[in-house]
Specification:
heterodimer; A: alpha/beta; Pyruvate-ferredoxin Oxidoreductase, domain 3; 6-stranded mixed β-sheet; 6 strands; 43% helix; B: alpha/beta; Rossmann fold; 22 helices; 22 strands; globular
Chain lengths: 208, 634
C-alpha cells in the first residue's frame, strides 16, 4: 500500500445519482486505482431493478483492510453527487457531519415531478441544506463540461476529475487519471479531456 | 463485457472484481468446462462474465431457457465427469428444485457447483427466501463465501469437495456479495481439459429411493471432515469477554465493522467465521460453543445457523445463551447491515449504540424517485392499449372490469402506482397459470395474462397449453421485445443469438401458440396503438383462449440500434395552442419523457429522455403532438 504524503490512509465515500448516469463505472475506476495502489477495496452497488430512472447509490470503502461493503449511517467522508436531489438524499443519510460534498448541478427530474405529483426543491435550497451538514460543498456543471470535452456521456469522468482535485483520496490525482485510461479504453481523448476539465474546475473554485 | 483479468494467468496478482465476476474467475480456475444459467438479479453477471470469455477459455457457456434446464445441463456434464456450474437467483432454484431433489440421490462424477444468489430485502425480488435451507432440504454441502476473494475460492473448493463426495454442492451468494467489488488475488489456471466419459455400468437415478437416499447420507458423511477444514471457516481471537460471535457468510464483514463502530478493541471479542452453513462443522463449532456463555449469531437471511447451533448445544448438553434473529438481536426481515449488527452487539456487551437519526435539514421535502419503465418502452404502449381496450369494451375501470395477471420482468413495475396494472404478480409464468384459474371460476370479466417473451419461454408455455386443452377463456398478451431486458439484455429465444454470440434460430411466440392450437393468435406492432387496442377488444369478444403478440424491440436496445443505423432521435413537438391540458398523455401513457408544466398547464417533452417512438402523438385526443423521429422509425 502506497499512501501519498499528507493523506489519510482510508476513505469512505458514497456516489449518488440516477440510473444511466455512469455512477457504477465511476466507482469501478476509483476501485481499480485503489487496488493498483495496493489498497483493500469494497464497493457495493445498488442496481435498483436494473432499469433507468431510479436512484443509484454506490458505497466505496478504501483502506489497508476493508470488510463491510456498506458505509454505516453518517460516516462517509465524502459524497460525490451526480444529481442535486440525489446528492442531498445520500448526504443526509451517509455523510459524516462536516464531510465534503461534490455536486453536479444538472437536475434530473423524477417522474413524480414530471407528472405533477411532487415538487422538486429549488437548487439553492438543496445546496443550503448540504452546506448545513457538510464543511465543504463544491458545485460543478459536469454535464456541460462533458459536452465541452466531446460527449455528455463523459459526465461521470468529469466528476472523477472533480473528485481527484479535492485530494481526499488516499492516492494521487494522477493515479485516478491513469485508471480512467486503463478502465475505459474507448474515447480515451474525450475522457481524459473530461477528467482534466473536472479537475481544473474544482481547483479554480478552491483557489477562490 | 469481456474482461482480460478473467483469463489472465498471473497467479498472485490482485485485481478488482465484482463478486459475480469472481465466481466466474473461480470457474475458470476450477476447470469448469460446462456452465449454464438463466438470468436473475443478483446472479446474472456470473454467466455474462463466463460467456464473454468461454470461447477463449475453450469451455461451453449458455443462457438456458430456464433454471431447471440450466441445472440439468450442468448436472449431465458433471455425470459425464466434467466439472460444471449453474447459476441462478434464489427463486431460480425453486424452478430447478425438481431436478435438484433427485440429482442429490443420483450423484455426480465431476465436481458440480450450483451458485444460488439470495436477495434479502428483495432489492430485485419478490421474496426473501434463504437458500441455505435448500442445502439442508436436499442434504447437500453448502459454502457461504463472505467477500469477492472467497467467492472465487468457493468455486474452486466447491468443485473439489463435490467431486470428492460425488454430490452437487451449493454456493450461497447474496446481493451484498454478488454486487460487491473487491480485490481478488488470482490463482493458477489449469491447462488440461477433461474428456467426457459416461460410465456404462451406472444409471444415474433416484430409484430405488431408500438405497439412493442412504448413498446420499453416506456421501455427505464422508465429506464432513473436509468441510471442517475449509479455509472459509476460522476462529479469530479468543477474546476476553464471555461472549463469542458466530459470523456466517457476509455477516462476518458486518461484525468487523460493528466492532469498529462500537470502538471495541480488535481481538477482545472472539469471532468464529463460518463459511460452511451445511452441514455445520460440528467439531469446530462445538469447541467454540463450549467456550462462551453467550453466543451472538450474525447471518443474513433466515436464522439458519442460529437454529443449527441450538441443536448442537442440545446434543452436547451445554447451555450457552444463543442470541440472534430469534431473540430479536437482529431483524427477521430485511437485510442486515453494520448498524443493525452493532445495535445487537451493543445490547449484548452492555454498551449503548444508537444509529444516528436521519433528518433532512431545513425541513425540505425530498420527492421520491421511483423506478419507471423507460421512455418509449413498448410495455408502456401495451399497458395503455390494454387499459383502453377494457375501458372501451367493458365501459368501466380496468381494475374493476377485468382481471389482469402480471408476471416477472421490467413490466413487473406494472404492479405499482401509477401503473396499477395487475391483480396478481407471483412468479415466472404465473400470469398464464393464474389466468387459467380465474377463468375457471366463471367470473364475468375478461381475464388477461400479461408477460414478456423471455418469461413466456421460461415458464409460460405449459400454462398456455393447459388453457387450450382445458378450455380456459383467457387473453394472453405477450410483449416480445427480443431480449431479457430486466436483468441487462441477455438473449431470449426470440433474440437469435446464444450467450457465446453464435447465431441461433429465432423462436416466435405466435408459432408456439399456433402449434398449441390457440384459436386466436395475432401479432401487432406495440407502437401501433389503435390496432393494438382493436385487436385486444376483438380477442375479448372472441370466446376461448387468445394470444396477442405485441412486438417491439426494447427501447434501450432500440436507441442503440437507431444510433447504429444513423437514425436521428428528434422528439415530437407539442402544439401548445392545441394542447388543452387534458393530461391524458402524462397520466395514462406514463412515459417518463412526458412532462407536466404546472405553470402553463400544458404537457411537454423532455428532449433528453424522449426516444422518438411516436406513441404519444397517436394517443393525443387533440392531435397536438406531431413530428419527430427515432426508435419509432426502426
Amino acid at each position: 500500500m502506497e499512501t501519498c504524503k499528507g493523506k489519510k490512509d482510508e476513505i469512505a465515500l458514497v456516489i449518488a445519482g440516477v440510473g444511466g448516469q455512469g455512477t457504477l463505472l465511476a466507482s469501478q475506476i476509483i476501485g481499480h486505482a485503489a487496488v493498483k495502489r495496493g489498497f483493500s477495496v469494497r464497493i457495493s452497488e445498488t442496481f435498483g431493478m436494473s432499469q433507468r430512472g431510479g436512484p443509484v447509490v454506490s458505497h466505496i470503502r478504501i483502506a489497508k483492510t476493508v470488510y463491510s461493503p456498506l458505509v454505516p449511517l453518517m460516516t462517509a467522508d465524502l459524497v460525490l453527487g451526480f444529481e442535486p436531489l440525489e446528492a442531498l438524499r445520500a448526504s443526509v443519510k451517509f455523510l459524516t457531519r462536516g464531510g465534503s460534498v461534490i455536486v453536479n448541478t444538472r437536475i434530473v427530474y423524477p417522474v413524480e415531478v414530471n407528472r405533477g405529483d411532487a415538487k422538486y426543491p429549488p437548487l439553492e435550497k438543496i445546496l443550503e441544506a448540504l452546506r448545513s451538514i457538510a464543511s465543504e460543498v463544491v458545485t460543478i456543471d459536469a454535464t456541460t463540461l462533458a459536452i465541452k470535452a466531446g460527449s455528455p456521456i463523459s459526465t461521470n469522468i468529469v466528476m472523477l476529475g472533480a473528485l481527484a482535485a479535492l485530494e481526499k483520496l488516499p492516492f494521487a490525482p494522477e493515479d485516478l487519471r491513469e485508471a480512467v485510461k486503463e478502465r475505459v479504453p474507448r474515447d480515451v481523448d474525450i475522457n481524459l479531456r473530461a477528467f482534466d476539465l473536472g479537475f481544473q474546475a474544482i481547483r479554480e473554485q478552491l483557489k477562490r | 463485457m469481456p474482461r482480460a483479468e478473467l483469463l489472465e494467468d498471473s497467479p498472485g496478482k490482485k485485481v478488482l472484481l465484482l463478486g459475480n465476476e469472481a465466481f466466474a474467475r473461480g470457474a475458470i480456475e476450477a476447470n469448469v468446462q460446462v456452465a449454464a444459467a438463466y438470468p436473475g438479479t443478483p446472479s446474472s453477471e456470473i454467466m455474462e462474465a463466463l460467456a464473454s470469455i468461454a470461447e477463449a477459455a475453450g469451455i461451453y457457456a449458455e443462457w438456458s431457457v430456464n433454471e431447471k434446464v440450466a441445472f440439468e445441463i450442468a448436472y449431465a456434464a458433471a455425470v459425464a465427469g466434467l466439472r460444471s456450474l449453474c447459476s441462478m437467483k434464489h427463486v431460480g432454484l425453486n424452478v430447478a428444485s425438481d431436478a435438484l431433489m433427485v440429482a442429490n440421490y443420483a450423484g455426480v462424477e465431476g465436481g458440480m457447483v450450483i451458485i444460488s444468489a439470495d436477495d434479502p430485502s428483495g432489492h430485485s425480488s419478490q421474496n426473501e427466501q434463504d437458500n441455505r435451507v435448500f442445502a439442508k432440504f436436499a442434504e447437500l454441502p453448502c459454502l457461504e463465501p463472505a467477500m469477492p476473494q472467497e467467492a472465487k475460492d468457493s468455486v474452486v473448493i466447491g468443485c473439489e469437495i463435490s467431486e470428492k463426495c460425488k454430490l452437487p454442492l451449493i454456493v450461497r451468494s447474496l446481493t451484498r456479495l454478488s454486487h460487491v467489488r473487491g480485490e481478488v488475488e488470482l490463482g493458477p489456471i489449469p491447462k488440461e481439459k477433461r474428456k467426457p466419459n459416461i460410465k456404462w455400468e451406472i444409471t444415474y437415478t433416484g430409484f430405488p429411493a431408500p438405497d439412493h437416499h442412504k448413498m446420499l447420507h453416506d456421501r455427505l458423511s464422508s465429506i464432513v471432515e473436509d468441510l471442517e477444514k475449509v479455509p472459509l471457516n476460522r476462529i479469530e481471537a479468543e477474546g476476553n469477554e464471555d461472549i463469542g460471535v458466530v459470523a456466517a457468510g457476509i455477516g462476518y464483514n458486518y461484525v468487523k465493522e460493528a466492532l469498529k463502530l462500537l470502538k471495541v478493541k480488535e481481538g477482545s471479542v472472539a469471532i468464529l467465521k463460518l463459511g460452511v452453513p451445511h452441514p455445520i462443522p460440528k467439531n469446530l463449532v462445538a469447541g467454540f460453543l463450549k467456550s462462551y456463555d453467550t453466543i451472538y449469531v450474525v447471518e443474513d437471511g433466515f436464522p439458519f445457523v442460529e437454529e443449527e447451533l441450538k441443536k448442537i448445544c442440545y446434543d452436547l448438553n451445554i447451555h450457552p445463551t444463543i442470541l440472534g434473529k430469534l431473540s430479536g438481536h437482529l431483524p427477521l426481515e430485511g437485510e442486515i447491515d453494520p448498524d443493525k449488527v452493532a445495535m445487537g452487539l451493543a445490547k449484548i456487551l452492555g454498551l449503548s449504540y444508537k444509529p444516528p437519526e436521519v433528518t433532512v435539514p431545513g425541513g425540505i421535502e425530498l420527492p421520491r424517485r421511483t423506478l419507471s419503465l423507460c421512455a418509449g418502452c413498448p410495455h408502456l404502449a401495451t399497458f395503455y392499449a390494454i387499459k383502453q381496450a377494457i375501458r372501451k369494451e367493458m365501459k368501466g375501470d380496468p381494475r374493476k372490469f377485468s382481471v389482469i395477471c402480471g408476471d416477472i420482468g421490467c413490466y413487473g413495475l406494472g404492479l405499482f402506482h401509477p401503473y396499477n396494472m395487475f391483480h396478481t404478480h407471483i412468479c415466472m409464468g404465473a400470469s398464464i397459470g393464474c389466468a387459467n384459474g380465474f377463468a375457471q371460476t366463471g367470473i364475468d370479466r375478461p381475464v388477461i395474462a400479461y408477460l414478456g417473451e423471455s418469461t413466456f419461454f421460461h415458464a409460460g408455455m405449459p400454462a398456455l397449453l393447459n388453457a387450450v386443452y382445458n378450455g380456459a377463456n383467457i387473453k394472453v398478451v405477450v410483449q416480445d421485445n427480443y431480449t431479457t431486458a430486466m436483468t441487462g439484455h441477455q438473449p431470449s429465444p426470440s433474440t437469435g443469438l446464444t450467450a457465446m454470440g453464435k447465431p441461433a434460430p429465432r423462436i416466435a411466440v405466435e408459432d408456439v401458440a399456433k402449434a398449441f392450437k390457440v384459436p386466436f393468435v395475432k401479432v401487432v406492432d406495440a407502437y401501433n396503438i389503435d390496432e393494438l387496442i382493436e385487436t385486444i377488444r376483438e380477442a375479448i369478444r372472441t370466446p376461448g383462449p387468445a394470444v396477442i403478440v405485441a412486438r417491439r424491440l426494447c427501447a434501450e436496445l432500440a436507441r442503440r440500434e437507431a444510433r447504429r443505423r444513423g437514425i436521428k432521435i428528434l422528439p415530437p413537438k407539442i402544439d401548445t395552442e392545441k394542447c388543452t391540458g387534458c393530461k391524458l398523455c402524462v397520466t395514462q401513457l406514463l412515459c417518463p419523457a412526458l412532462i407536466w408544466r404546472e405553470n402553463e398547464k400544458k404537457a411537454d417533452i423532455d428532449p433528453l429522455l424522449c426516444g422518438g417512438c411516436g406513441v404519444c402523438a397517436q394517443i393525443c385526443p387533440q392531435k397536438a403532438i406531431s413530428g419527430g423521429s427515432g426508435i419509432g422509425d426502426l
